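Sequence only, no structure available. Ideas?
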Amino acid sequence: MIDPLPPDMYVTLTVKRYAAGAYSATTGKFVTGAESSFTIQGSFQPWQPKATVPQDGGRRNKASARVYTPTQLREPDETAGTRGDIVTAPADYGGGDYEVVEVDPWVMGSLNHYKAYLQKLVADGA
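Reply:
I predicted one. Tokens follow.
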């Protein structure tokens, strides 16, 4: 964690993090690791990217967002077998789960923070 944002700039967000997964020896399908959850303080901002943000294996999305937070969120890591953290959007922004696809550290002296890019997850068949 790095220096906090001023209190009037953030909301409490729930984050789900998954342990490393593995391919099943019987089915050959990837099985996601165990889930844990925690809360962070951050500024959640809906966002329409100017360029396409890379997607993982055909995962579809409906919307994008950015989160500014002093807490480092995790990007997907295919080599480690981990998916990106899942951030639940505040009800004021329509709720829903967003996956972290990229995280950039911002070193600005007293306002050090991370900027995470998120893509909304869409249920299969939606």
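The chain has a mean pLDDT of 83.
Hope that gets you unstuck.
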